[in-house]
Amino acid sequence: MRKRRFIHSELGEYQELNVTRGSVGTVMVSDAEIRGLTNYLDNAESHDADRSILGLLEDMLELEKMERPLWGETKKEAEFAGKSVTKAGRTVPHPRLKRIAPEKYRKELALREKTYAINEVLRRYVFLPRVWSTGQRPWVVLWDIVPRSTTGSRLRNGTLELNDGIALRLILDFAKAGHLNRFRRCLHCRKWLYAKFRHQDFCCTGCQQKHYAKSPEWRAKRRDYMREYRRRTM
User: Fold this and answer.
1) Of all helices (H) and strands (E), which one includes residue 187?
2) Residue 234, domain extent
3) pLDDT tens across 34-50, in order?
């Protein structure tokens, strides 16, 4: 079937480009890099640039969990849902929506505020394009991120030590792959971990055992066990 041509009255005919062919569809990430990123996040509070990356990740994870309002359920919503206004340099939902659907407006505003905060951090970084050709089309296009810190990168004991530029690149790669929420804090020690399994909430078996040992359910089972043990040994 012949594709439909799109011709603008002033700009002329548009040509469709498949830009995914010229990019790297699969990014390989090593265990050393993942260990490096979790270590980086654990120690990020000590430097401004690193603290910004930590805050960026936390904001991105929070944004993923935020509820998206469903606009257009009424005619009034549909009339203003696609319209925005600029306020203090930011794009916000049309103010009429605040009266039409105040709860949805609040959620939409929160989403936009969080997105704005994330992009404000990204604007502080310089993204440099890097290209090469294998002699066959298309070209490969990658983006390197210039770090704001002077920290270098080196491999030590199976862990890659990162600067903020490399950490940011890894975070964005995981975000594009849909695996950003695999980064989470251990429920017991609060250190960062990468969950190879979606249900993983602890950085190690020791933290898992210590966490459950403090739970009311575990303590109740422990009391029942000791009560039964004393009864059998009396």
Assistant:
1) none
2) 204-234
3) 999 999 999 999 899 99
